[in-house]
Amino acid sequence: MPGFVFWIHPVLQLVATAMAAYALYLAWPRVLRNHFGKRTSFAWAEHGKWGKYAHILWMLGLVGGTALVARHWGGSGATGDHYWIAQMIMPCIAGGYITGTIMDRDKKPRKYMPLVHGVLNVLALTIAGFQIFTGMSVVREFLLH
Ligand code: HEM
Ligand code: HEM
């Protein structure tokens, strides 16, 4: 397999994480409105679009990275921390995506779902931030060694 294939996952996950950070930046006015009583405007469709891109790329990257490690490094899980932290991001991505889609399809005032959605996604973004650090060790040990 050509060497560049092993770089697709790290680049994809970095791009996806940047998109998620942008989605959070777009959601910030909504947080101020929902929880701090500020009158702000929220780029609803734009937020949903970048949020979806981020979630889809994260999941594709996760599955692709797992498949490559399973094939080339004797079974998935070989990366240790990077693997285990990835398992924690999965439920956050799934929950964030489902709650986001429900609120996007049926627009109405809600009390708890935006909060659950926001917390799950901020958690996912935090975990992705950790993955950049654990991922750099994986790049050093698996790709540059
Ligand atoms: C949301 C962020 C990320 C998730 C969920 C994620 C998830 C995963 C998973 C599940 C694997 C397979 C591990 C195994 O079976 O032991 C993997 C492999 C790998 N990850 Fe990540 N990762 C993320 C970000 C990153 C970043 C930012 C980097 C680099 C800085 C990186 C570098 C790697 C490398 C080099 C591999 C080996 C396979 C390959 O080269 O495609 N990952 N990742
Ligand atoms: C990583 C990606 C995402 C992040 C970081 C994120 C973050 C947030 C945050 C922090 C809020 C404000 C919650 C609150 O005020 O309590 C919010 C609201 C919202 N998000 Fe997302 N989100 C993401 C993905 C998505 C996706 C994929 C969708 C679905 C299309 C979506 C749809 C919505 C909607 C409709 C609201 C407004 C809910 C309301 O106030 O009624 N989000 N998001």
Low-confidence stretches: none
Question: Count of helical segments?
Answer: 4
Listing every helix as H and every strand as E from the N terminus to the C terminus, the arrangement reads HHHH
Q: Which molecules are bound besides the chains? A: protoporphyrin IX containing FE
Q: What is the number of beta strands?
A: 0
Q: Strand-residue fraction?
A: under 5%
Counting structural domains, the number is 1
Question: How would you characterize the largest beta sheet?
Answer: none
Shape: elongated
**Helical amount:** over 70%
- Our measurement of the CA-to-CA distance between the termini, rounded to an integer number of angstroms, reads 17 Å
Q: Structural class per helix/strand content? A: mainly alpha
Integer-rounded radius of gyration:
17 Å
| Mean model confidence by pLDDT | 97
